[in-house]
Amino acid sequence: MHRQYRRVQPLTRNAQPPRWVGRANAEGAIGNEHDILPDVPPEPDDIDRLESRLLKKIARASHDHLLIEPGDKIMVAVSGGKDSHVLLHLLELIRRRAPFKFSLIALNVDQCQPGFPKDLLPNYFAERGYDFRIVTEDTYSVVKEKIPEGKTTCSLCSRLRRGILYTRATQLEVTKIALGHHRDDFIETLLLNLLYSGQIKAMPARLQSDDGRHVVIRPLVYCAESEIAHYARAKAFPIIPCSLCGSQPNLQRQRVKELIANLSLENASVPNSLMAALENVRPSQLLDRNLLARLGGPDPAPPVQELPETNFEHELISVENLIASANQAGLRG
Ligand code: SF4
Q1: Does one domain contain both 157 and 261?
Q2: Domain shared by 48 and 117, yes or no
């Protein structure tokens, strides 16, 4: 399996030793199952406690954002990465324990990447007794044809995959589509938008598609990536590496990931603080006049009309005249 590891250097002398960070794809999923983890097998008790913590976080997310409701038929998108494996496994545990009925369908999109282990997920799903579907669509060739060699292919690849998910969701008449994005995806997206897009936004835990026909949910919103990686490793899920497509890593996301990791070495609460910020927005302390208007403030002023250059010159001359007049008046006084 192809792995790429890099050291994240601490910013201060007294910080903890460097940690190991794996390669992330465009959707923020780290490309293998061993990121940020010490190479020490976890104790069974630790894993039970971790599992219970993760289940509580999913339950809280579901409560806060109405993610899992009675009668739901939830399609879980399983790419074979650690996040989607953990999501499916924990949702199944919740399904068995929940006081109301809902159902799950695991769906994997085989995008025909070279070396994709076609039997791995079907065998795993069948062994575990999941209701599942495998959809084979050669988006890999489409992406290779459209994107020049050496460029990041994730954006088009993700859009094509999302389209396939929506089509299948309609055919299967599911009520929701569950994706494996976790807390770190949310805060990295927030910082990426702040730093590179001039927008304050992350992603929603529950999203209605533009045409109103689909609801996408992200039940792992409160779960840290390190917890998910730890749990996935302990459970030995059959992980498929995301490096099969040969895409270049998204360098901006990589930088943001490193930034958060470095700041966390100085202050471990940085990721949670970023997450808390998403739940604690103070619109009155921002400058978005449209947002303030939507919240009942004054309507935004109409856009400023650019003055023609001649008028501007004229205005400057007028100001100069005004100053001259004032000076004269002062002299007279
Ligand atoms: S191009 Fe590769 S890394 Fe990017 S989203 Fe597609 S499969 Fe994942």
Answers
A1: yes
A2: yes
Q: How many domains does the chain have?
A: 2
Q: What is the mean pLDDT of each run of 10 residues along the chain (333 residues)?
A: 37 34 34 40 80 97 98 98 98 97 98 93 98 96 89 88 96 98 98 97 95 95 96 95 78 94 96 97 94 86 63 54 60 43
Q: Is 302 part of a structural domain of the chain?
A: no
Q: Are 318 and 250 members of one domain?
A: no
The answer, yes or no, to whether any atom of ligand 1 lies below 6 A from the CB of 247, is yes
Question: What residue type is assigned to position 124 of the chain?
Answer: Y
Contact yes or no for 23/31 (Cβ under 8 A): yes
For residue 157, report the distance from its CA to the centre of ligand 1, in Å.
6
Domain presence at residue 284 = no
**What's the pLDDT at 36?**
39
pTM of the model: 0.79
Helix (H) or strand (E) holding 216: strand 215-217
Nearest CA to ligand 1 atom 3: 25
- Between the CA of 154 and the centroid of ligand 1 the distance, in Å, is 5
44 lies in the same domain as 94: yes
- Is residue 167 within 8 A of residue 154, CB to CB? The reply is no
Cβ(25) – ligand 1 distance below 6 Å? yes
Q: What is the CATH number of the domain that holds 40?
A: 3.40.50.620
Q: The domain containing residue 325 runs over which residues?
A: 307-333
Q: Is 24 in the pocket of ligand 1 (CB under 6 A)?
A: no
Does the beta carbon of 242 lie inside 6 Å of ligand 1? Answer: yes
pLDDT score recorded for residue 209:
87
- Nearest atom, ligand 1, residue 157 CA: 6
Instruction: Judge if 187 and 320 occupy the same domain.
Output: no
CA separation for the pair 149, 211 (Å, rounded)? 34
Q: How far is the CA of 52 from the centre of ligand 1 (A)?
A: 31
Q: Pairing mode, if any, of strands 215-217 and 132-136? A: unpaired
The CB density around residue 57, as the number of other CB atoms within 10 Å, is 20
